[in-house]
Amino acid sequence: MPIITLLTDFGVSDSYVGEVKGVLLTRAPNATLVDISHEVHPGDIRAASYILGRTWKLFPPGTVHFVVVDPGVGTERGALAVKTGGHFFVGPDNGVFSLVLGPGPVAAVVLSVPLGSSTTFHGRDVFAAAAGSLATSGWSSRLGVSMSRDLQRLSLPTPKKNKQGTVEGEVIYVDRFGNLITNLESQHLQSGASLWIGGVKIDAVQKTFGQVSRGQVLAYFGSGGTLEIAVRDGSAAQRLSAGVGTHVRIERAR
Amino acid sequence: MPIITLLTDFGVSDSYVGEVKGVLLTRAPNATLVDISHEVHPGDIRAASYILGRTWKLFPPGTVHFVVVDPGVGTERGALAVKTGGHFFVGPDNGVFSLVLGPGPVAAVVLSVPLGSSTTFHGRDVFAAAAGSLATSGWSSRLGVSMSRDLQRLSLPTPKKNKQGTVEGEVIYVDRFGNLITNLESQHLQSGASLWIGGVKIDAVQKTFGQVSRGQVLAYFGSGGTLEIAVRDGSAAQRLSAGVGTHVRIERAR
Amino acid sequence: MPIITLLTDFGVSDSYVGEVKGVLLTRAPNATLVDISHEVHPGDIRAASYILGRTWKLFPPGTVHFVVVDPGVGTERGALAVKTGGHFFVGPDNGVFSLVLGPGPVAAVVLSVPLGSSTTFHGRDVFAAAAGSLATSGWSSRLGVSMSRDLQRLSLPTPKKNKQGTVEGEVIYVDRFGNLITNLESQHLQSGASLWIGGVKIDAVQKTFGQVSRGQVLAYFGSGGTLEIAVRDGSAAQRLSAGVGTHVRIERAR
Predict the structure, then answer these.
(1) Residue C19 and residue A58: Cβ atoms within 8 Å?
(2) What mean pLDDT is predicted for residues C17-33?
(3) Which residues, including other chains, have CB under 8 Å from residue B202's CB and lie 6 or more apart?
(4) Which residue of B1, B37, B58 is in closest CB contact with A13?
(5) Test mutation, B33, B41, B55, B64, chain A, max A CBs within 10 A
(6) Could you tell me how many helices (H) and strands (E) chain B has, helices first?
(7) How far is residue B147's CA from residue A78's CA, in Å, rounded to a whole number?
(8) Cβ of B233 and A43 within 8 Å?
(9) Which terminus of chain A has fewer CB atoms gathered within 10 Å of its CB, N or C?
(10) Chain A interface includes C27 (CB < 8 A)
């Protein structure tokens, strides 16, 4: 049975997700629909790209990923179907696929907008139809017009190392627990180095929450592979008044 | 595989939705369960009827729609199974099916309440059993007692036109983005007419959000077919202090 | 088709639930995934045990229940697979299974943590793999090391009766409506007895909400089988400033 995952900023209190699911199951009656999240902050393409980057590869090859965070709906931004890494993707050409696009080959088409489509809900009228078609019939050049330019990519921050050996990274995502996920990797943290966020020094990198007392700040390499800063049984975002973009610094041992 | 959609005000933080799904999958092991929403404001029959009105037709014929927003649970209000338009519905007789009932034929039965049922959770003890039976065996007069009176219908507001040609409509739904969905249709908006909400004039009807600047108010014909008022990348409900029932006026060009 | 239910405190705004579902569907492609809730308050093992206690038995035998509310992730607490009552369970050994464990036989193994597992996300790296294996292949002693000690159980409050015949119970769960679910059962409430919460006397035990006026406080035996205190179309938690642990007293008729 084909799998279709759904990642949107539609919320779950209105009819929008239900309308999309109706179209998907009409087009692909045997599909297994999997909600990834509909609670992306409205229009937050970067958060959606991060969530997609963590989830897509964990599904079986052939999965169709419906990714609609689309503040530019109805404008000239392309509506895409993309094939890469053995998976299929549909969504707007606004950078939301940035963390899917690797060195491997990418096929992409611009979907046409059917006559009578809503100008504000391409999720239902453009992307759901394409996702249903991909789920039942797989990739076809007839899905749309071959993409003649590069796909949009977000300009994502990368850690910077200065002459003194200090590495400057930043928080790239904050989760529901208030954990601060950074772009710093284990290669950046040499033995004896110290970790700073704002003016606060984080004493040590731990393995997991239970190694510190309740309410204490800790750092660890998280399940996404990068350094995270958290408060045990609390919110690091609140405690440290930090969010996406907050700088995190690793200073070399002297 | 039969499809059962679920639309409730149960929320998703408690056991209630899980209990219903357990009963549904026990009765109809092959069913595909589709969450429409469980975040209807508690007891808001009108919002539920609006969401149902937008979603049900997009599912394949034969779909069972479990619609339980039921502030009168356990009282004398009927517990219904309804067949119309090739779809099945279960839920209380409180008007929640108002936007499903059209000119076509409607079959309806009053479900009996099994001995030992909870008096406060007919979703689990009455409606889920009926939905499971509909999903596996289809319509049967043995589901309950044939309905001898008309189904309850909500008295929904309709636009009114006065002698000067002014059309008075209102906001009928506010979505998670703060978009104001009105009951005004394209026929009401003649060329050169002006649109007012409260004391605020909306300059022009646009095609989509991207045609105005961020933070600007706009109007457009939305994905539900009626006029909507929104703020690009913002909330019109907040900006205009508007909600369900707020009047929206179209004045004829002079 | 095997059923896997999911009960967590992961929330639905991040990638975590999606990552788990990807692993589950990779391991068990035919599984039906059923979200019970992901909105357990972070680390609230007691609320999770209550929700699990109400839901698990309503699913068909053979269902796999993925229950991950795991503030001790990565510490020495065991990661369990459990078989009892014809159902399978995976989750941490922290008491979350307290209301599943009855007098019947229980098989339990401690899951091993695969090399390279995240120290903070055993839901994905330990429990999802085990749940997928249970869904496709059923119980096997090869899932882990047989459990050599008793499973953790929460010390849950039970009603106490004093010499004057007064029964002291308490609120054990508050639902999204603000309904106060107590641990008092019908045996505790004899004819003519009076019910008190804080200094407030509840006049009578009703059958359902509709028997009192809007905004009035009522008590009734709820869908979980115990006494509940609610406000019709309102929140008893707010009205009575009550929550989990608030005492509820039944005084014998004089």
Answers:
(1) yes
(2) 98
(3) B194, B195, B196, B217, B218, B219, B229
(4) B37
(5) B55
(6) 5, 16
(7) 51
(8) yes
(9) C
(10) no
Rounded mean pLDDT, C76-83: 94
pLDDT of residue C119: 92
The token duo for B142 is 């043995």
Alpha carbon B37 to its chain's center: 10
Express each pLDDT in B155-206 by its tens digit: 999 999 999 889 999 999 999 999 999 999 999 988 889 999 988 999 879 9
C156-185 exposure pattern, b = at least 16 Cβ within 10 A, e = fewer = ebebeeeeeeebbbbbbbbbbbbbbbbbbe
Q: Return the residue of A nearest to C35 by Cα.
A: A35
Distance, in Å, from the CA atom of B43 to the CA atom of B45, rounded to the nearest integer, reads 6
Q: Which two tokens stand for residue C98?
A: 């307290």
Q: Is C26 on the interface with A (CB under 8 A)?
A: yes
Site from C9, C14, C35 to mutate, A interface, most A CB atoms within 10 angstroms = C14
- Are C225 and C252 spatial neighbours (Cβ–Cβ below 8 Å)? no
Distance set, CA B204 to CA B194, B218, B220, B221 (Å): 8, 7, 8, 12
In whole angstroms, give the CA distance from residue C131 to residue C81: 8
Partner-chain contact C72 A210, CB within 8 Å: yes
Query: In angstroms, what separates the C-alpha of C11 from chain B's closest C-alpha?
Result: 10
Residue type for C213, please? Answer: S
Enter the ipTM: 0.96
d(C-alpha A3, C-alpha C206), whole Å: 47
Test B33 with C34 for CB contact under 8 angstroms.
Answer: yes
Distance in Å, alpha carbon of B54 to nearest chain A alpha carbon? 7
CA-CA distance, A250 to A226, in Å (whole number)?
A: 13
CB atoms within 10 A of CB A123: 30
Give, as one character, the DSSP assignment of residue A55: H
Partners of C220 on chain B (C-beta within 8 Å) are 119-120
Whether C15 has its CB under 8 Å from any CB of chain A: the answer is yes
Locate A97 and state its tokens: 């696929």
**Alpha carbon distance C48, B11 (integer Å):** 15
Distance CA B9, CA B44 (A): 8
Interface of B with A in 185-244 (CB under 8 A): 207-211, 220-224, 228, 233
Q: Is the dihedral of CA B213, B215, B216, B221 positive or negative?
A: positive
Across the interface, do B208 and A119 touch by the CB < 8 Å criterion?
yes
β C3-8/C64-68 pair status = parallel
Hey, how many other C-beta atoms are within 10 angstroms of the C-beta on B42? 16
Confidence (pLDDT) at A177:
95
Would the CB atoms of C55 and B125 count as touching at under 8 Å? no
Query: Phi then psi for B252, rounded to 5 degrees?
Result: -65, 145
Mind listing the pLDDT tens digit for each residue in A77-134? Answer: 999 999 999 999 999 999 999 999 988 789 999 999 999 999 999 999 999 999 999 9
Would you state the structure tokens that stand for residue C187, as one six-digit string? 């045996």
How many other C-beta atoms can be found within 10 angstroms of the C-beta atom of residue C102?
9
Tell me the chain C residues in contact with residue B73 when contact means C-beta distances shorter than 8 Å: 208-210
Helix, strand or coil, per DSSP, at residue C172 = strand
| C-alpha to C-alpha distance for B94 and B114, rounded to whole angstroms | 20
* pLDDT at site B76: 87
Q: Nearest residue on chain A to C19, judged by CA atoms? A: A55
CA B53 to chain A, closest CA, distance in angstroms equals 9
Query: Would you say C228 and C222 are in contact if contact means Cβ atoms under 8 Å apart?
Result: yes
Residue B157 half-sphere exposure toward CB, CA atoms < 13 A: 20
Of A1, A36, A224, the CB nearest to C18: A36
